[in-house]
Amino acid sequence: MTQAPAAASGMVRRDDRWIVYGLPVLVLIARLIVNPHYGFFRDELYFIVCGRRIAAGYVDQPVLVPFLAAASQAFGVSLVALRAIPAVFAAVTVWAAIVLSGEMGAGRWGQVMAATSVALAPVLSAFGTTLGPDTVQMALWTLATLFVSRALAGRPRYWLAAGVTFGVAMEAKDSALFIALAAPVALILAGRGRALATRWFVGGVALAILIALPNVLWQWRHDWPMLELLRNGRAAKNVLLTPLAFIGQQVQQANPVAASILVAGLCWCLLNREQRWIGVTYLLLLVTMIVLHGKAYYLAPIDATMFAAGGVAFERALHRHVTFRGAVLACVLVSGFVLLPLTAPVLSETRLLAYRGWLQAHGVHFSEAERGRAAPLGAEYADMHGWRELAGQIAEIRRKIPSVPVTAAVFASDYGLASAILVLSPDGFVPHVISGHNAYWIWGPGDASSVAVIDVGGMLAARGECGSVEVLGRLHGRYALPVYDGAPLLLCRDMKASWVKLWPMLKRFW
Questions:
Q1: Is the pTM of this model over 0.70?
Q2: Average pLDDT, integer, range 481-502
């Protein structure tokens, strides 16, 4: 028999605490154990470097994630400390989905289904493995929906909590602006616009603007580099999807089996007057991402909300079919665990290669969001390999090759190479590192000499900027992205132009 729904007041029944608190704690413990394997993800290294040079904003992101990344390394370089942050956000997302589902009317089975779907959805699992803007987004978008729902249920002060949540989300990723705008528009379209006519809503909007304003001002002062980056990404880097392909990716990244829970949640919201605004918000975001050619995972932070609604929908549809409900939950669990090794590092590299091969042989298709990043392990896992080897190679070059001046700076072709050297170099061997990629270009060349520069990736030599070139070695990373494995390490001598003249031509925002 279906249990009575959790009270809209947010109170948790004593006998339901194992669901509301126990399942998120289980997710947290599992993530703390699983997450710190392989190595630092390329972007995580970049976030650490950005956080060490704290600013109101950066070319490609606001300040929150860099701040968290750098703070996690306050007591030394630690993958365990860094990966504890996504573990916490994954647990918070599961908790918020459980509570939201309960307040929508789900009983215990519906809440367990919501929690299971959220915890094992491949895209949300990926967000819970490595630290990135979407790690924060999946938790905050779900929390914001919960707070708005409570405000609509006669507790208008929750508009302030929603405003703070939206503001913090925009300090994690600029695209949070889309849901912050879509939610009130959806309320109007769903016939709930009167709920916005309150001073609490105005106060929430003011708080969101106040929190997000520093990053907006930074972007404005620097001529909106994020817009340039997005244009460049669409033109040369991102895989552009047709509308049908984009929708297909939503199914794949949600888990093709659990996607039925998501779709049921969307339909239930659209048919339910109280929750219709949530369904309309999803559709507005879906259309926006398709029109703007966003990456498929840009929509994923709202998936936890739709899974919460799906738990309600399935529970009500199957309330007389207990056995069938158990079978549905089992299917979601099994399929989720089958796909888990693709987004959480639970297997060794050799076993993962074999497992991916087995999945491909049984019809599982792997797709990449960016061009030229295919790798045997998959792009995400490949980007966790080779960085310590690179930092060690640069330290050895500077220590053992007489022709390399001790004061020679390192020019790296992209922020991954640059950040790996800065974060992972042995103590006492951290060189001056520069790059033209994203935030590094804003930071400039500093006092780097143009007499001799270690050219990591060979970009300077390829451009013909060197008077002479000495080959120092090549990058070696067994499981790294093919574009990095074997890339040249060169000594660029007597550069033909000063850094001041050359720097504007080295800008790469993508």
A1: yes
A2: 92
